[in-house]
């Protein structure tokens, strides 16, 4: 399995624009997300150790569509009492202009983030996982339907090996791709 395949992703929907800057929350703390096979919440401080890393801002989790990064200062991330806040200066590229236009029209699907969980970074209580520490890799502006890939990746991370469920989800994804392609 490639490193990209093991990165988990989650989606949220709070975005604001100001000029060529887009801001909002890529994740919120203590909100419970139903990921199908399990529930998940993010503990305050879960991103703290990752904030000193070079984090990318991507379009639809695509490393070919970099919108900014912390190393260059075009992406700024911080934790506050609500969650993982971001501020992104959009580039004057086709992807940046598209994101800006979709944000102005309120047509974006939301925000998402890609991460891995280090050993000891999670705890379980029944079917609820609490993320206490994550290695943040990227945040993404998601144009449409962020829940489908998140659910599939979340199921793999839980260790379910139900071939029929994965096959059914793959067929749903293929149908969505055909409908929009």
Automatic annotation (TrEMBL):
Domain named Prohead serine protease: residues: 17-162
Pfam families in the cross-refs: Peptidase_S78 (PF04586)
Matching InterPro entries: Peptidase_S78_dom, Prohead_protease
Record's keyword annotation contains rRNA processing: no
Domain of life: Bacteria
Molecular function per GO: peptidase activity
Keywords: Hydrolase, Protease, Viral release from host cell
Coiled coil: none
Annotated GO biological process: proteolysis
Name of the protein this chain belongs to: Prohead serine protease domain-containing protein
Higher taxonomy: Bacteria, Pseudomonadati, Pseudomonadota, Alphaproteobacteria, Sphingomonadales
């Amino acid at each position: 399995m490639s490193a990209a395949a093991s990165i988990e992703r989650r989606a949220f929907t709070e975005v604001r624009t100001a000029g060529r800057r887009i801001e909002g929350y890529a994740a919120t703390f203590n909100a419970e997300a139903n990921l199908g096979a399990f529930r998940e919440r993010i503990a305050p401080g879960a991103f703290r150790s990752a904030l000193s890393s070079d984090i990318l801002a991507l379009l639809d989790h695509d490393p070919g569509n970099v919108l900014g990064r912390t190393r260059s200062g075009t992406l700024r991330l911080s934790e506050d009492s609500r969650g993982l806040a971001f501020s992104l200066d959009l580039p004057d590229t086709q992807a940046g202009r598209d994101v800006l236009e979709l944000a102005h029209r309120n047509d974006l699907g939301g925000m998402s983030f890609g991460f891995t969980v280090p050993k000891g970074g999670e705890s379980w209580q029944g079917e609820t996982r609490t993320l206490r520490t994550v290695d943040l890799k990227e945040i993404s502006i998601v144009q449409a339907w962020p829940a489908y890939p998140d659910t599939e990746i979340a199921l793999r991370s839980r260790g379910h090996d139900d071939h029929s469920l994965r096959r059914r989800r793959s067929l749903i994804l293929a149908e969505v791709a055909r409908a929009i392609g």
